[in-house]
Amino acid sequence: MMLNAIDLTQLLSLFSFNRDEPMLFTSGLFWVLFLVFLPVYALLKSQRHKMMIFVIAFSLFFFYKSSGWFFLLLVATSFIDWWVAQFIDSSKNRTERRIALTVSLVLSLSVLLFFKYSNFVIWNINELINGNFQPLDLILPVGVSFYTFRTISYVVDVYKGKIQPTDDYIDYLFFLSYFPCLVAGPIVRARDFMPQLQENKPATREMIYGGLFLVMLGILKKAVFADYIAQYNNIAFGNPSGYTGFELLMAVLGFTMQIYCDFSGYSDMAIGLGGIMGFDLGINFNYPYRSLNVTEFWHRWHITLSTWLRDYVYIPLGGNRKGKVRQHINLMVTMLLGGLWHGAAWTFVVWGAGHGIALCVHKLSKPWLDRIESTPVTRFFSWLMTFSFVAFLWIFFRANSFHAADQVIRGILTDFEWAYLPVFLARRSTWCIMLAIIFGLHFVPRHVWDRMRDWFINVHWAVKLVIFIVLIQLVLQFASATVQPFLYSQF
Known about the structure:
Elements: H1 2-14, H2 28-44, H3 48-67, H4 71-90, H5 94-129, H6 144-159, H7 169-177, H8 190-199, H9 205-238, H10 245-276, H11 294-300, H12 303-314, H13 324-342, H14 346-369, H15 376-398, H16 402-414, H17 420-427, H18 429-442, H19 446-458, H20 461-478
Helix pairs in contact: 2-3, 3-7, 4-5, 4-6, 4-7, 5-6, 9-10, 9-18, 9-19, 9-20, 10-15, 10-16, 12-13, 13-14, 14-15
């Protein structure tokens, strides 16, 4: 009897929220549950309403395992914004519509501001008045920034008449809680997602196996490359004064590749899961480190976020329609907000400001830059300057404080010697090989990746199984002692 009680307790613990072990796509439990979920989903796919109820239940459980009872916050948000959208669409009174939109925006942003920025505000007040206000014991609901942005885009698009609101609350709850997009995006918009939900087309063979290809690629990026190189990056950024300039530069390059593999790997998994289920979630990364200028970088990096900021912040502020000075102010405001969105710290604001300044400088210089002949040499130096600038700003993104960022920068500038290269290569050979592979694969032409995906789709299932087994072996071989969380799940 005691043994059965222990087994039951252990079983129940698997289905309860653990603050120290939130369920993410790297969790073994998630994949076990997903393998159970998938055949049931396939059976219910043709019965649209039953399928939606089943997916919503799974999505809310996934959110519960990630953030505890905060999943009820998402349910409440979804109901309020669904009702507000219905009211906006039915009302003919412009003032009423504006009030309803304002109420929706205030409520959505208030939730985000409270959970994400309360302690940031308290810390700044303490600094300004030498106060002693204690920080609040808050848990940041996983993915709150992402689903907040999605619900804002829905209500605003209804207000502007770009989409018709759904009459069925279940449709909207499905859209907002859809688990592949829940933790860290992509920020899929209702106008792209809802028509697919209405049509409810079955997943094609290309979507299923193409999605599996993306999932496996994402696991490789995240669980093998990002998690492994993160180990050294965390040590170096945790104690920058204990490392030479060369070692700190390697940590900066390491984090530059880590954050790409981490977030694009997550996006690949999310988009791949969507494909397996018959949904096209678009593209979120398009080889950003190939960019020849900062403007191009933001057309390639976190595409769903950059387009959201463009459409719901930059353009409403006036965009480029009110003169050059106003355009640059709008750019700076947008990027400052984008920086603060990433984290409640002034280092993130500096990161956003740096990109904002670079975007303004590029737009000012464009008439002159366009006169420079495009040659392999000029393109190389354009790429090198862009990549170096982006990597430099990642220092502020990763550092825990301005003091730590200053130590990293000063160490690179004042204590850099190439003599450390052979020693570093010898001591961290696997790390260096991984960094080189990530960097090299980043420049593989897109059509090559497309051909690899097509080959994987058409190859015999036994070959697919062998590739999957090899991938799992790589994950086990390079797994760190503690699984690294998705960086963007914190935002």
